Structures are given as structure tokens and as C-alpha cells.
Amino acid sequence: MKPPDLHEPGQCQVANDVISLVGDKWSVLVVSKLGHGRMRFSELKRAVEGISQKMLTTTLRGLERDGYVTRTVYPTVPPRVDYELTELGAELLEPVAALGNWAVANHARVLKARQAYDERAG
User: How far is 87 from 98, CA to CA, in rounded Å?
Assistant: First the structure.
């Protein structure tokens, strides 16, 4: 199957529609954590360092709406809610992991470039 040509009219808009959610900071981290398996809300909150309860709720709703995550509610007291990746979400792990690995491998280079820029702009 031929990959889409982002130079064709409308294709950038299509790509942006999908990437806008999965490319945000919290979505990438949540998808990465759920790549290890089903998790409860409280487990995710502890696992994703720095995320607020409100932002985690918003992020999970967006991921569920776009078909990357399923939400299962169990009728217990208090209610138990589990989240896990769908097939689509699992497919997203590969590019997310590649981007994460690239970011870690190039962090020092990015910091060096920032420092050089700040010194020139200073």
C-alpha cells in the first residue's frame, strides 16, 4: 500500500486532525503507559508524572473518543474503571515509541542547539 502524499491537497489537514491529539504531551505518555497493559485510573495518575486528575480525565476521554483506548466500568463500590489500548491504540505504540526513543537519544543535541540560539539571541 502506497503511503499518503502529504503534498496532495487536503492530506496535511487529515494528518493534523489525527496528530493533534496523539502528538500532545499527555496523550503520548498515557498511550506509552497503557502499552504495558490495562490500568486503573489511579494507577495511570501515579504512572504519568506531573499530570493532574482533570488533565488525565480529559486526555483519556479524547483517546477513547478517537478509538485508541477503551474504558471499562465495573459495578463495584466504589466503581472500578479500567483503561486499555484498542487495536488502533496498540498500533500507535510503534511510532510513539520511535519518537520517544529519538527524543531521548537527541536530548543533549537539542539542549546544545537551544543554548547556542539563546546565546546568539541574548
Answer: 18
